[in-house]
Amino acid sequence: MRRICWVVFLTVCWNIYGAIAQTETPWRRFEFTHPQMGTVFRLIFYARTDTLTATGWAKAAFDAVDSLNAAMSDYIPESELSRLSQYAGIGQFVPVSRDLWQVLKISEGFSRKSEGAFDVTIGPLTRLWRRARNVKELPDSARISTALQSVGYTQLIVGPRQRILLNRPGMRLDLGGIAQGYAADRCLQILRKFGVKRAMTDAGGDIALGKPPPGKKGWDIEVSGSPGQRLFLSKCGITTSGASYRYLEVDGKRYSHIVDPRTGWGLTHRVLVTVQAKDATTADAWATAISVLGKTGWLQLKHKPKGVTVWLTEENW
After folding, report:
1. Strand blocks (E) in 163-235
2. pLDDT tens-digit map of 95-127
3. What is this structure's pTM?
4. Running DSSP on this structure, what letter comes out for residue 223?
5. Which terminal CB of the chain, N or C, has fewer other CB atoms within 10 Å?
6. Where are the beta strands (DSSP E) in 70-217?
């Protein structure tokens, strides 16, 4: 008798479970875009929810991107990053926000590992080259030499308790090689707080990937520079960087918008780099560093990062 009751109980439970599964809210795909950081952020995620709720989640993620831009942009004179430069060379530690401190701390590590190819203190040089592209003439070599005196990642001191010291006068920071990746990762972090794990953020080629779409083995990603090569990835970051499209051409020679912080000059080799790493922040920073290093520099780098996959094509202009 007890056995019959147990079988009946299991049968009833199974039928109830089947009914619930059949009526469970289906997955819905949501896509949102938001212009920021000089590009367009694209957010795609899957959730069992309504459009109004999903829109609120996307807004929370994009609001965070806006806040990061307000803190980390070197184009905005009132940004936290720009204000920090006012304290360069006076020997004083300056308290900063947690996000800015975190990005600078992470950047310090990338600079050491890349032997200076990645360097957020490159600001004085990028300002010269922005002007050069606008007026379509090379920066004066003397000005480059002067700017180099204010560049050097070892002069960026990341102190405890969210404090930063810029050790040399004239130092300016430029987070263009890492901020978009960091912001893409932040979008996924915010969505996870809402229980959304099947998500992707594309910040102009800096891509942060969560769990794959329902029924898929991964997000379908095409490797730039390798036509036809597709990857199915999840829970990682992938970034493409290159010195192919934005450049200054003078006397038949092209100088990329990517500047080598060690020499002060725009790259003169055409390079396209795709990096897959544990997150978009790491992929973004290494894509920048490897663009500067070029194929030879990357092969000669003593301590290559673990867990990083690189696709690299290079040719002279």
Report:
1. 163-166, 199-203, 206-209, 219-222, 230-233
2. 999 999 999 999 999 999 999 999 999 999 999
3. 0.90
4. P
5. N
6. 94-95, 156-159, 163-166, 199-203, 206-209
